[in-house]
Amino acid sequence: MTPLYEIRSVSYRYKLDGQHIQALSGISLNVCQGEFLALAGPSGSGKTTLLNVLGLLDRPGEGAVLFEGENVSRLSERERTLLRRERIGFIFQNFNLIPTLTAHENVEYFLLKRKTGRIEARARVLRALEAVGIAAQANQWPNSMSGGQRQRVAIARALV
Q1: Mapping DSSP to helix (H, G, I), strand (E, B) and coil, where does residue 111 land?
Q2: Mean pLDDT confidence for 90-106
Q3: Quick one: which of 24, 41, 51, 144 could link to 12 by a disulfide (CB 3.0–4.6 Å)?
Q4: Which among 90, 93, 98 has a CA at the least distance from the CA of 141?
Q5: Which three-class secondary structure state does DSSP give residue 31?
Q6: 39 and 80 in contact (C-beta within 8 Å)?
Q7: How far is residue 23's CA from residue 79's CA, in Å, rounded to a whole number?
């Protein structure tokens, strides 16, 4: 089976307070579709950096990142943004919900940015909210929801 992600000898460095920090050093990894991956380690060990590289938010300093067989390390920023928008879903630890939008609107937002028709977007949002068990909270604001409910909105957003 072709891996969804292939990470080949990826390294990543950044500068913090005048010091160079080696966040990733020669990481190689394959992740197949349907596979679950858990990253564990102490604070500062590179977990978030690796997720940012996988999510095309950061570019590796060395090595290659292949997504569905394509070397995405070489894509332009615009191409990376389009690929993220169309093919990669994020579930953030702090949810990153827009506080002025309802749960439904938060899930629908990026569908509409992708020019998905309103009728199709509404149907997809409702299916996603039902799938995570919070369709009844579709019209609630994030600040009126529990942490678990906000997390499920974030999951629904990643699913669509």
Answers
A1: helix
A2: 88
A3: 24
A4: 98
A5: strand
A6: no
A7: 25
Pairwise CA distance, residues 124 & 97, whole Å: 18
Q: Does 120 score more than 80 pLDDT?
A: yes
Contact call for residues 113 and 105 (beta carbons, < 8 A): no
Average predicted confidence (pLDDT) for the chain: 92
Between CA 84 and CA 95 the distance in angstroms is 17
Ramachandran sector of residue 9 (left: φ over 0; alpha: ψ -120 to 50; beta: rest): left
End-to-end C-alpha distance for the chain, whole angstroms: 25
The total number of structural domains that make up the chain: 2
Secondary structure of 53-66 in HEC code, one letter for each residue = HHCCCCCCCEEEEE
Residue 138: give the domain boundaries.
Answer: 103-159
Is residue 155 one of the residues assigned to a domain? yes
37 pLDDT tier (thresholds 50, 70, 90) = confident
Q: Do 74 and 119 fall into the same domain?
A: no
